[in-house]
Specification:
- This protein has a single domain, classed as Up-down Bundle (Na+/H+ antiporter like fold).
- The chain has 16 helices and 2 strands.
- Strands 1-2 form a two-stranded antiparallel sheet.
């Protein structure tokens, strides 16, 4: 039965993606929506399972690995200041307004801060796909978005460590932050010195597909090390891809990795997001969902846009950068799960936030397409 489930997911994902493109939207939007339709929330054709979850995790890891491979490192360095500005304001705005909304709705101060942090998280895995389809992933805007996502992740993780230490009482805050520092130091050193050497050793092996195998091993090791030290696995995967992007193996790895990822794992990831949707109890919490969705969308959009504009981008590019930061994706869901386990969030509130995360994920692709599509004077459009 599981094999048939995989076939259904792949078929539904590709067909929905094609329909979405024909309607003038990014293919990822159709893939997200079809996940809801075939999932328990609507038709119930496919149920969530541990195996689908595991495969989808590989999908998002490979997606960010490919994003790293496609990143222009020189452009990435040049966009450092703008990335920092977008990342910082992209945390400050949702953190502040999320906290205020939590207080207004009667949550405790600690729970309200946690809600603000949850809304501050950014997952650019969805944005990466949309930017890739529009040919913007390797642009200055794309480099700024990816850099901002890394900075955003670091800020949220450090802030989350503070909140968890105050709520748990026995957490060693210095140890938690120290692990993050250790990860980035070791990861950067390994990316600089170890990765090129290892790939050369793999290339010399007398077996088939040794280079791509070596690259995937590095991707998964970096992702595991990131997760083990409390940093999101996708950050580790991105750094692994970035380190390979400056070697002579970049094109060979990219071609193979893209085939592996987009033919199987990535479609499962996009579809699995919709499978997690649960509309039960939505009517009773409709106001909460609407308010937090508006806050989630506007705070990232405004914060990212203002930061990009201050960094000398024009208004159109700034709005595009701001819109790419809206999606919360799996990062916010992980944080929400932590909140439930630490009794900072009830299961009912968790369900509300899952729907909010889904809404931010669905609105991101069309907004990116809108802001990053050039319009001719006659009104026709073409992708920039």
């Amino acid at each position: 039965m599981f094999i048939l489930t995989l076939a259904i997911i792949l078929l539904a994902s590709k067909v929905a993606g094609d329909i979405s493109v024909r309607l003038g939207q990014p293919s990822v939007l159709g893939k997200l929506i079809v996940g809801i339709l075939v999932g328990p929330a609507v038709f119930g054709i496919i149920e969530e399972s541990e195996m689908i979850t595991e495969l989808s995790e590989i999908g998002v890891i490979l997606l960010m690995f490919i994003a790293g491979l496609e990143t222009d490192l020189d452009e990435f360095k040049r966009s450092g200041k703008s990335s920092a500005a977008v990342g910082i304001l992209g945390v400050v705005f949702p953190l502040g307004f999320g906290f205020l909304a939590g207080i207004v709705f009667g949550f405790s101060v600690t729970a309200s801060v946690f809600l603000g942090l949850l809304l501050s998280a950014t997952s650019v895995s969805i944005s990466v796909q949309s930017l890739k389809e529009l040919g913007k992933l390797q642009s200055k805007e794309g480099a700024t978005i990816l850099g901002a996502a890394v900075i955003d992740d670091i800020l949220v993780i450090v802030a989350l460590a503070f909140v968890m230490s105050f709520s748990a009482g026995d957490m060693n805050l210095g140890f938690v932050i120290g692990k993050k520092v250790v990860f980035f130091v070791i990861a950067i050193l390994a990316a600089w010195k170890l990765v090129p050497w290892l790939l050369k050793r793999f290339a010399a092996l007398q077996v088939s597909q040794s280079v791509i195998t070596g690259a995937l091993i590095l991707c998964f090791v970096f992702a595991f090390f990131a997760e083990y030290t409390g940093v999101a696995a996708i950050i580790g995967a991105y750094i692994a891809g970035l380190s390979i992007s400056v070697t002579d193996f970049r094109e060979r790895v990219f071609e193979k990795a893209e085939t592996i990822a987009y033919s199987f794992f990535v479609p499962i990831f996009f579809t699995s997001i919709g499978l997690a949707v649960d509309f039960s109890g939505m009517k009773d919490n409709l106001l909460l969902i609407v308010i937090f969705s508006i806050i989630a969308i506007l705070t990232k959009l405004i914060g990212g846009t203002l930061a990009a504009r201050f960094s000398a981008f024009n208004w159109k590019s700034s709005l595009g950068i701001g819109s790419a930061m809206i999606s919360r994706g799996e990062v916010a869901l992980i944080i929400a799960s932590i909140g439930v386990e630490a009794d900072l969030m009830s299961k009912e509130t968790f369900s509300v936030m899952v729907i909010v995360v889904l809404i931010t994920t669905i609105v991101t692709p069309p907004l990116i397409k809108w802001f990053f599509t050039e319009r001719t004077p006659s009104g026709s459009t073409y992708s920039a």
